[in-house]
Amino acid sequence: MICPNCGYDNLPGSEECSSxxxxxxxxxxxxxxxxxxxxxxxxxxxxxEPRKPITVKADATIREAIQTMMSHxxxxxxxxxxxxxxxxxxxxxxxLTKIAGRPEGWMDLPxxxxxxxxxECVTSNDxxxxxxxxxxxxxxxxxxxxxxxxxxxxxxVRDMLRHITQLCREI
Length: 171
Prior knowledge:
Elements: H1 35-42, E1 55-57, H2 62-72, E2 76-80, E3 86-91, H3 92-99, E4 116-117, H4 128-138, E5 142-147, E6 150-156, H5 157-170
Parallel strand pairs: 1-2
Antiparallel strand pairs: 2-3, 3-4, 5-6
């Protein structure tokens, strides 16, 4: 890594120049080449205006959860404890992979055993790139947005795509 101050050729990853002690950490930071990259690196999740979270308790029945999903036209519910803290996510995918094919009576079982516990979350202040990375790595279509452990919204891949598409129109 060449020091921009004195031209000394430092070892890759050096935090400061061995010759002039100039800080080199800024050279390792990615830089944006266009408005989309800049937005992903700098804009915050709150910019997407997360949708209001639709919640259920862990002891709600699968029947109640499905009715709630249908009445709100959503594919996922946030599962909260008695204090309103997020403890899981219950999705259409959970219904298909964990419940479908069970014997009669499954509609009256609680969602708790079938939810995805301890879901990945973001805050309104996290960057869009951070949220998108979590979605990509985990294969999630939705991410809860929390404040102090309590859900305050949900963002989706569709929200990200809508934002990026809008940026592309502006270029």
